[in-house]
Design goal:
- This protein has 207 residues and is of the alpha/beta class.
- It has a single domain, classed as Phosphoglycerate mutase-like (Rossmann fold, 3-Layer(aba) Sandwich), CATH 3.40.50.1240.
- It contains six helices and six strands; from the N terminus they run E-H-H-E-H-E-H-E-H-E-E-H.
- The chain has a six-stranded mixed sheet with strand order 3-2-4-1-5-6, sandwiched between helices.
- Helix 2 crosses helix 3.
- The protein is globular and about 45 Å long.
- The chain starts with 5 loop residues before the first strand and ends in a 9-residue tail after the last helix.
- The C terminus is likely disordered.
């Protein structure tokens, strides 16, 4: 498999993640664990890959994660901000526990991507705003770290692969690799899956 075009990274653990509740606003910070996760992910990226660009959601937790990733990678360039990468608007569920989502009578886990919380966005809405950004990043042909959110990463995977194949939300600071498969179709894999498919280090830089 060719070297990856994009590295998708979820932000480090936030205070909302620790409490297992939807964030009330975009200013919520990382926990100490989240800071450690971001530093470790930065080192891993620096060892395994050679990205030329970092693009991040405008929210505080992603911006801070991006800075910590850059430090771990040894990246001294600009951290670009892309507003369309902001997390899914959760509407009336802001501040509620994650379990509140499943309590809605009209929530269908078999078609989770279509459900829209009152006052918020469905995941298909998120695809509509992140898809053009991802397409533009791929067209630029520069290996890029994209720092965003769990819901956004689900949407990116669905956009690239044309189906909702990945119902699991990425863990904090989990790294997903976007690269073309043997047929030239974009696929999203874990770092280890990418290494196995590439037969070793896949010709990636050691950055």
């Amino acid at each position: 498999m060719p070297s990856p075009s994009l590295l998708l990274v979820r932000h480090g653990e936030s205070e909302g993640n620790r409490l297992r509740q939807f964030s009330r606003d975009n200013h919520i910070d990382l926990t100490e664990r989240g800071v450690e996760q971001a530093r470790a992910a930065g080192v891993e990226i620096g060892v395994r890959f050679a990205p030329a660009r970092i693009v991040a959601s405008p929210y505080h937790r992603t911006q801070r994660t991006a800075r910590l990733l850059a430090e771990g990678m040894g990246y001294a360039g600009e951290i670009e901000t892309e507003h369309a990468l902001r997390e899914r608007e959760i509407g009336d569920l802001a501040g509620a526990p994650y379990s509140a989502l499943y309590a809605h009578a009209d929530y269908d886990p078999e078609r989770f991507w279509e459900w829209r919380p009152p006052g918020g966005e469905a995941l298909v809405d998120v695809v509509g705003r992140v898809g053009p950004v991802i397409d533009a990043l791929l067209e630029a042909e520069r290996q890029t770290v994209v720092v965003s959110h769990g819901g956004v990463m689900l949407a990116v995977q669905a956009h690239l692969e044309g189906a909702w194949k990945h119902p699991r939300v990425a863990a904090n600071c989990e790294i997903l690799v976007v690269a073309p498969d043997a047929s030239g179709q974009w696929c999203v894999r874990s770092v280890e899956e990418h290494r196995e498919d590439a037969g070793g280090d896949g010709g990636e830089g050691t950055g």
